[in-house]
Amino acid sequence: MPDLKEQLYPSWPAQVVAHPMVTSSDEDKFRYLQVLTLLIDADDVILDEEIEYLRRMVQIFGLENGTLGKLIKFVQLPETDEMRKTMATFYDKRGYSLMMDLIFVAWSDEEFHPKEREFILHCSDLLGISMDKLHVMLQMVEAIRKEDVERLNELVDEFNEVKGDPEQLRFFWSNLIT
Predict the structure, then answer these.
(1) Which of 57, 41, 80, 44 is nearest to 4 (CA)?
(2) What count of other Cβ atoms lies within 10 Å of the Cβ of residue 150?
(3) Residue in 96, 176, 119 with CA at minimum distance from that of residue 143
(4) What are the φ/ψ torsions at residue 116 (nearest 5 degrees)?
C-alpha cells in the first residue's frame, strides 16, 4: 500500500511553495478546516484517511493541539449561518486552494461519493468559482494523483484561459514539477 503522503498527493507537504493559507489568521485557518471537515462528513462516514488528512492540514497550518477535536465536535452540530460566513471569508483567491483541498479530501478514501460531489458543487457556487474553473481543478487533481506532469502543465495553461490564478494552486504540485 502506498505511503499516505503519496496517496493524498505527491507534493505534501510542499517543500518549495507554502500552502496559500499559512499566512492567514488562525481564525481563517480554522474556518477553512471547518469546511474540509464538513466535506469529510458529507457521506456520513468519517474514515481514518480523512482524519489523517485533517491532522496533516492542522500541522501544516501550525494550529494548536486540540484543533482536530474541535473540528470533529463542530461537524456534529454545524450551523448553516456559520457556514455561509465561513465561505464568504474565502471569496477571494484563497477559495481556489479551498476547492483543491476539498477535491483531494473527497478522493482521500479513493471514492468520490455523490454527497461529496454535491457539497463541492455547493461550495464552488458559494465561492463564485465557475464550472469551467472547477472542471479544470478536478482534472488537475487527477493529473497530480497520477503524477502526470505533462497533463498538469496543459491544465495550468487551461486554468489561465478560464481566468483562474494557477499561482494560488502551485502548492499542490510544487514537488511534482521540481
Answers:
(1) 57
(2) 8
(3) 176
(4) -70, -40
Q: Residue 4 and residue 127: Cα distance in Å, rounded?
A: 29
Quickly tell me which residue has 479551498 as its cell. Answer: 98
- pLDDT value at 78 more than 60: yes
Task: Read off the pLDDT of each residue in 124-145 and give the average, rounded to a whole number.
Answer: 94
The length of the chain in residues reads 178
Tell me the average pLDDT across 102-117: 89
- The separation between the first and the last C-alpha atoms of the chain, rounded to the nearest angstrom, is 25
Domains present along the chain, CATH in parentheses = 22-173 (1.10.3680)
Assigned C-alpha cell, 150: 505533462
* In 41-167, alpha helices (H): 48-61, 67-76, 80-89, 94-107, 114-127, 131-145, 149-161
Q: Which three cell numbers stand for residue 56?
A: 496533516
- Give pTM, 2 decimals: 0.82
**Residue-averaged pLDDT of the chain:** 86
